[in-house]
Design goal:
By secondary structure, this protein is mainly α. The protein contains four helices and three strands. It has a three-stranded antiparallel sheet, with no helix packed on it. The longest helix has 32 residues. The chain is elongated and about 75 Å long.
């Protein structure tokens, strides 16, 4: 970089503090985060944690965002339980007892009832 030219690190820091949603670093260690206003420089802030942000704190972005993530969590849980409950059936259909020893089926179809 040339002397006095654009600095990508400073530009990214400005973007991070002025555009991306942040929480106060000294609060919200428990169940809820306190959202910091854009451009906050008086108190230390950090970005919302990707995996540990509670669904309740998603309401800071609007009701629809919280509803989306709540529904996503519920559907993921439902399909995980359905997959575990389907394992014994897939195991039965995979065995030779069901297929009478015919091996001409595609492996993707073999564990199904087709």
């Amino acid at each position: 970089r040339k002397e006095g030219g654009p600095d990508l690190d400073r530009a990214w820091a400005h973007y991070e503090h002025m555009t991306l949603a942040r929480v106060y670093s000294d609060e919200g260690r428990g169940s809820e985060f306190v959202r910091a206003p854009f451009g906050e420089r008086k108190r230390p802030t950090r970005l919302y944690p990707l995996w540990s942000t509670p669904t309740k704190s998603m309401a800071d972005f609007g009701v629809s965002v919280r509803l989306y993530f709540s529904t996503l969590l519920a559907l993921a849980s439902f399909f995980a339980i359905a997959a575990v409950l389907n394992l014994p059936l897939a195991s039965y259909f995979w065995r030779d007892i069901y297929s009478d020893g015919t091996q001409d089926l595609d492996p993707a179809v073999r564990a199904s009832a087709v």
